[in-house]
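hey so i finally got around to running the thing on that chain from the lab meeting. sorry it took forever, my laptop kept dying and i had to restart like 3 times. anyway pasting the input first so we r on the same page abt which one it is
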Amino acid sequence: MFDRLGELAGEHAELERALADPGVHANADQARKLAKRYAELTPIVAAFREWQQAGEDEQAARELAAEDPAFAIEADELAKQRAGLEERLRVLLVPKDPNDGKDTILEVKAGEGGEESALFASDLLRMYLRYAERHGWKTEVIDSTGTGLGGVKDATVAVKAGRGGGAGAWSRLKYEGGVHRVQRVPVTESQGRIHTSAAGVLVMPEADPVDVQVNDNDIKVDVFRSSGPGGQSVNTTDSAVRITHLPTGIVVSCQNEKSQLQNKEQALRVLRARLLAQAEADADAKASAERKAQVRTVDRSERVRTYNFPENRISDHRVGYKAYNLDQVIDGDLDGVIDALAAADLEAKLGDQ
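ok and heres what got predicted. didnt touch it at all, straight out
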């Protein structure tokens, strides 16, 4: 690890010299690339230098302790400080998810359980919208299909960082993919019996057009009349759009906007995100393994999380997380369970080093 740190410190010094050269900034793209790498390395190199300094100070304290035992206590404290810095360096050296700064496309789909599943999907959608609001993220409902009782058959939402910037939505929401199970007494249940149903969540980093190019010859575009609410202009014109990506068979529909052109643009956004997710899964075995938790079929047996309303309990089965604050979680307070998933993810990556 420390051989690698020496190499990174050397690279950091070279980048510092390059960025001080006015000629480098004549090429804005190149300067931006160098500045980004320099910013990535700076905290690592700073911690490395702090670790080196603590080692030198510890050695000096050990030598002085031979003459004055009081320095032995200082040497022991420096040794603890150095051990802490080593652990911090291990964490800093964990490979970063290249998509962590990206915005997110999130899909919620009702599954088994009929109308109760659709109502639960609606609750999940609201939960994610509230969670985004807590983090200052912007949300945009790209497409949704409702039910008569206020449930959601399926919905697609774009989540992006607000003006304040900060971490991308993907860095937190990427852990939400999978089948979510609910246990509660449905509003449609007259006998007061607890039912179990499920809804699926699929999360993808949003792809920029530069990330994924969609060839017009590779897509089939169908238009049809919207079936959802939205007024006469929506329901009386063929404004809804269905795009089929012929090479992969991926189908995306959008009917929320009033114009055919707007619906096509929104559908292309979702298509690009799906294609990016598929390409990354195919190219990287680790990404493919991580996506095993994503929705395949919305089947209760493939659950990643259970929401038990009678006990006010939330359980994430991937990391053994359990808490009795479901009322707060369903209102958007998701940080506790997401922190547990992020910590387990980091631990697994540290184990691979």
